[in-house]
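Deliverable D5.2: sample structural annotation.
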Amino acid sequence: IDIDIDIDIDTGAVDIHGVAGEKAVAANIRLVIEAGQAKPAPPVGPALGQAGLKIMDFCKDFNAKTADLKPDVPISVMITAYEDKTFTYVMKSPPATYFIRKAATGLSNSKGSQKPGHDIVGEISVRHLHAIAEVKRKDAPHIGMEAWVKSLMGTAKSMGVRVVE
């Protein structure tokens, strides 16, 4: 929303008014959906249905935009629902855990360790973490590369994946 602020220097009066132009947001919905797999079934249907959105419109558009990706790739989606029952959405990169599971060697369990910090279930190199950080950084470019790599190291550790040079 654009805001105009008028200040009268003589009296000190402040007048603030918004300028129309943006739609009123009804809800923000976060989902993780596998590429090309959006269906009206849970979790997509109920989440969009509660906001009164056209579920099939979203499913068709999302599936078309993700058709060139592998079907098992989870995509983070932020959907903004407006009061007039329209929506916009932003697709982000897959979760860090997805990339770590794919890049780690010797990962015996697809979920990671049942006892992180005690059981090591795989290894990943710092070079791989840098490559993952490059992809994840596109979602939040204001965060530095070093911070992304440290965050990914923590994620790997919490999954029971040892980081090696």
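Annotation notes: The longest strand covers residues 25-34. Residues 42 and 48 are 10 Å apart (CA to CA).
The annotation will be released with the project's public dataset once the embargo ends.
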